[in-house]
Amino acid sequence: MRAIILLGSFFLTYLSIYAQETVGGKVVKNTKDKTYQRGEQKGDETVDKALNKIEEGLGSIFKKKDKNKKKKSDAANDSEDTTVSEDASSSSQSSSTVSNSKSVKINSKFDFVPGEKIIGFDDFSTTDRGDFPKGWNTNSSGEISTLDDNPQKWLFITKDGYFQPDFVTDMPVNFTLEFDVFTRYRSSNILEYQFYILPSSNPRSDLSEEYLNDYFQFKWMACEGSSSFYIVENGETVGKNEGFMIKDLACEGDNKEPPVFAKFSIWRQDSRLRIYVNENKVLDIPQAFEADQKYNVFKIGAKYMNFSEQEDKDEFMISNLRYAVGAPDTRNKLITEGKWVTHGILFAVNAAVIQPNSYGILKEIAGVLNDNPSVKIKIIGHTDSDGDANSNLTLSQNRAEAVKTILVNSYGIEASRLQTDGKGESVPLNQNATATEKANNRRVEFVKL
Questions:
Q1: What is the Cα–Cα distance from 350 to 354, expressed in whole angstroms?
Q2: Domain locations in the chain as residue ranges
Q3: Which string of b and e fits 222-251 if b means at least 16 CB within 10 Å?
Q4: What single DSSP character describes residue 253?
Q5: Long-range CB contacts (< 8 A, 24+ apart) of 23-26?
Q6: Pick from 109, 171, 150: which is nearest to 357 by CA?
Q7: Other beta carbons less than 10 A from residue 17's beta carbon
């Protein structure tokens, strides 16, 4: 009887939440406590391809209806031409939630490997709601906001313009940039979202294209998913593709109210540039840059294509910007040096749930183990210092077990070759004083036995 009562209570709670989602409620919070009508929400870790799009961000607050549709797999490949990946419009995902109790299907096409040395990371956790974040510049205005009662903070871009993190500078020829975006079409003010990679000598200079001679630009239309890119050298456009579709950036069907959550991952290796949206590679350009061309500016923002002074504006937010350099050499580090530490295996906040954008790293380590069948390793988890020390110790142990589980169940590594351990927050690499330092302390260590 008690179980029935509890089940009934849960069901009534669910109906209450669902009614709030479909009727309306507070979505964006700031110091003025503005109220926005809520659309259908995305991102619950228990449903299809939208699982874990936000790296250690939104958790499970946003829910997406399971459409139960079979989607084509991403046909991205390594082309020798300046091309969009063959299936840039595909929003396929063959992955699901990873835990220490489940096996999952891996998206074998996802080959993104984040840089190992984290130069800058900002989740805006140290900035108060309503304030503009320190270490950023803009020619517009914005403020830090939250969504419902979730503590994850976002930079809410309140006007068209461009926003620039000061810690993204002196970019080497091998770097990665990752960030989450939230967009929602709410008005006739059609937004075009854009980001630039620039070799500007003055990072705070005007972005007007008439003043730019060299840059890479990527842009997409609000809710439509129609995207374009441009490569400009010495004032001339030397590469472009306009109007290709990326479904992960589009609203569902004809309904333009539901928000869109997506994770961008940008990877430069010498002249080659790859861009991923969620787990799909949407661009792979072998000759995007001159091999020795240095870039030192990253700008992201929005441009109103049909501006009007109505109160409801399209919404555009960004969070969890991660800038890192260097590519991991798993074969050299683990086999010849006996140890390899990675910051690229990412988990949901306060959980042993591996994020889909970790699959590139997992595939790398699995390849090393398959090529060296006699090697045994210990997997060691580490956390930052946020929260209780005992809880962090348990969390780090569970995360190590989650890595072992996916290596065994999805990549066929013998369980007897893998040991696990967790150190919690007890072996920090720094003082845990900033978001960047905390990001560097959250890591997984592989030790050859």
A1: 11
A2: 83-325, 330-448
A3: bbbbbbbbbbbeeeeeebebeebbbbbbbb
A4: T
A5: 25/148, 26/148
A6: 109
A7: 13
CATH class of 330-448: alpha beta
Secondary structure E strands in 251-305: 260-269, 272-277, 280-285, 297-304
The CB density around residue 206, as the number of other CB atoms within 10 Å, is: 12
Average pLDDT of span 118-127 = 92
**Overall average pLDDT of the 200-211 stretch:** 57
* Cα-based torsion angle of the residue sequence 341, 347, 351, 352 in order, rounded to the nearest 10 degrees: -60
pLDDT at 178: 94
Amino acid at 133: P
| Residue at 106: amino acid letter | I
- Helix or strand run (H / E) with residue 19: helix 2-23
CA-closest candidate to residue 171, choices 270, 284, 300, 287: 270
Tokens representing 313 are 């504006």
274 or 159: which carries more pLDDT confidence?
Answer: 274
User: How far apart (Å, rounded) are the C-alpha atoms in residues 228 and 220?
Assistant: 6
- Per-residue DSSP letter, 74: P
Strand boundaries in 312-371, DSSP class E: 315-325, 339-342
Query: What predicted TM-score, i.e. pTM, was given to this entire model?
Result: 0.68
Per residue in 158-194, pLDDT (tens digit) is 777 889 998 998 888 889 999 999 988 766 566 789 9
Please, are residues 322 and 165 in contact by the beta-carbon 8 Å criterion? Answer: no
The answer to whether the CB of 96 falls within 8 A of the CB of 116 is: no
Contact 28, 236 (CB under 8 A): no
Handedness of CA 155, 158, 164, 166 (dihedral sign): negative
The SS3 call for residue 44 is: coil
Alpha-carbon distance of 110 to 78, in angstroms, equals: 12
> Half-sphere exposure (CA, 13 Å, Cβ side) for 173?
10
Distance between CA atoms of residues 352 and 52, nearest Å: 12
Instruction: Cite the DSSP H helix spans in 372-414.
Output: 389-411
CATH topology of domain 83-325: Jelly Rolls (2.60.120)
Residue 27 pLDDT: 46
Angle among Cα 268, 343, 122 to the nearest 5 degrees reads 75
Q: How far apart are CA 228 and CA 237, in angstroms?
A: 13
| pLDDT of res. 331 | 63
Length of the chain: 449
**Which residues does residue 419 pair with via DSSP β-bridges, in sequence order?**
378
7's tokens = 């089940």
Token pair listed for 411 = 């990549």
